[in-house]
Each structure stands twice: as structure tokens, then as C-alpha cells.
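Appendix B. Raw example, untouched.
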Amino acid sequence: MTLASAGVTLGGPAFAYLPSENKKPALLGGPKAHPGQFPSWPVAGRSDEQGLVDVLRSKKWGRLSGNSVATFENKFKELTGAKHCLGVSSGTNALYTSLGVLDIGPGDEVIIPVYTFIATYNVVVLNYALPRFVDTDLESFQIDATKIEQAISRNTRLIMPVHIGGSPADMDTVMEIAGRHDIPVIEDACQAHLAEWKGQKVGTIGMAGAFSFQSSKNLNSGEGGAVLSNDDAFARNAFNFQNQSRGTDSDSSTYRSTRGSNLRMTEFQGNLLTTQMDMLSSQARTRSLNATYLTELLREIPGIYPAKMYPGVTESAYHLYMFRYDKREFADMPRSRFLQALAAEGVPCSGGYRSMNKEDYVQRLAKNRHYLKLYGEKAMQEWVETTSCPQNDLLCEQAVWFTQSMLLGTKNDMEQIAQALVKIRNHAGELAKSGSPEKGDKK
């Protein structure tokens, strides 16, 4: 089936960017739709280099003796509008610190989305609490906030929504449910630097928000993380927890609780984040403009469905550009073949997360000796039976991702992405027949 036969006019205004000739896909011998290169990542300059050299020469490499981490914290909290910012060693440890402050532990339940990076799950399990998965909103890729309430039990101690791909979850619904049940909310904003919900930066809406500065992130220092909070007591206890349960830099002689760890950020990370932050806002604007334009183009292609934004989203960070691929509009071509064809056009892509709840790594929790001791075999078997998330299973068969650095390209780059998709769809039947999908691949 061609676009023309599907009722789409290639010569119309929506496809004015397309070349007049109908070229073959690269996988069938045609030229690449995107023959150039997308911007590389990370972007580094002289100020980054000089900053690291300055820290090196200062011989003050840890936050307890230097001031680079404090400088970063002040700059990031000003940028986000948060009252407090705490730098830590990773995004995972930003979450771990947040759970530590709330004293999450054995017998507690934490509500999380099933469509997320494994760290969201890991921090719950590291505390020997029980993760409760909530299914995905297929159109937005986010946690289906309308299903949170049915996951709440008398043991629920925390709701932890994730702003997947940098787009805010439905925070009005999340906060309304949490408020009605008096359950705190920690935002996993690890992918969502500068994203906004109704004009408020994510990570400042719940009791706290966790950010990651791992090397793929929109703001990165290789590794690193931060906790934002507007709650004085929470922020104070978060510092204590990541500082071996000791007090502030100037008063570290007294232990402040019964648990703590060393999760401190280094001065090198703090300095690099401070210089990298100089580009963050301008890069965010570029991503947003390109993503908005790309969405306009892709919406015109049958079978391609860009991720929905909720009405409350005033800014997405676009750490990922996500869309769903409906193979029925592409001659039933398996997604694996579609991804192969798209990559051949010079457009890097991936299928995103797999169904986390079905991973052996997660399922084996029911046989973990510590969990059996804490919860019992019957309770753990019942937990396994509640992990079904059918909408997420469907999403994991359809999802396609582009990385954030691709959105730092040009308007022409976005048009060439769309051109690649049109070529693939126009020749989907040939591509499907000529492909050799991996054994067992029916997606």
C-alpha cells in the first residue's frame, strides 16, 4: 500500500519537504534519507576543560573540602525554582536517598510504573520493600495515573511516578490520589531536566524529585544525580543520609538517624555540571522546537503515533522522542524489520524498554530468600500474579525511540527522518518480504 492509496497526498502541503521522486528505501538499494550525521553527544567546550583542570589543581576533589558541588546545587535550584538541591553520585542514588529519608523498608509497598528504567525498581528492592507495578497509558508512554488507586493497600508508603522520556506524567491525578490517601510522592525525574507541568518544573511538585546526570542525559557529568525538595526537613535529612547519616559540612560529628551511606557527589562532577548547565536551556529550546516540528510531520503518516502529551504539560525535556509503530499500516512488517530499515536510512533508533514485569530478573524476586523470609511464599506468589500489565505489553511491541541528541539537529534533519518513514511505508510490502526477522520475532 502506498501513501497515495491510503488517502495521503504526497504533493500536498504536509509533505512539501519530500523530494518529488519516489525513491526506494536504503535497505532495497536506494539512497539514505539521512546521509549526514546527527549531532554527537556530549557537547564539551573550553569552559568544561578548564573547570576540571581547576578542580584538579585545587587538590580539593571531594565536596567536604571544596565548593564546586555547592555552586552546582545553588545554580540548579535557581534554574528549577526548588528551595533545596542536593548533589549525589548518581540518579539511582538520588532515588535511594529519597527512599532512605522516608525510611522505606521491609513490609512497605511502593507504587511505580512498569514502563521505566530498572533503577526505579532496584531502589525499592534494595530497601526490601515490595514494588507494585501500575500499567502504562499506551498513548503517552507514562504511568496510567487512573490505575494508581487500585494498587494502593494498607502497606503503601510511597507513590513514585516517572517522567519517562522527559515528558511529565499526569501529575494532577497523581497528586490528587496521593493527597486523598496521605501518601508522599517522589518524582523520578531522572530523564526530565527542565520539563514542566503547568509551568512548574518537575521534581518540585511532590515531596522531592530525583534527577540523573548519567552520560546519556540532557545534563550530564558521566555519572551523578540530584535531589530537589521544597521541604526543609526532607532536604536536611537527605543531606544527612548521603553523608553517612552525619550532619552538614560544618557539623559532621553527630549521627542523625539509624541509617546512612556515602553517596556524595565529587567536585569534578559538580564543576562539570555547572559549566554544562550554561547550555542546558538553549539545548532544551532546540529539542522542543525540533520535536514539535517532527511531531507535526509524523502525525501525517498512517501507522506512526507520536507519544501524547497531557494537557498539563507546558514543557517536555525530550530526553527521548517516542512514537508507536502500527505494523498493520506497514504491510504487517515486523517492528524488528522496521527498525532495521530505519537505521539503514541513517536514522538511529531502538525499540525501547521491554516488559520489565516479565523479566526473569524481576520474576525471580518471588524466590529471593530474603523476600520469602519477610513476606512468605504465598504473599510472593500473589505478588507475581498482580504484575500483569497488558497495555504495557502492547506498548513494548510498538514503541520506537530516538535519542535526545538527534533533536539537537536541524529542521532538515527532522524532515529527513519523516522522509525515511514515508519511503519505508511506501515500500513496506517489499521490505517485509525481503526481510529475515530474528527467530521467534513476531512483533
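End of appendix B.
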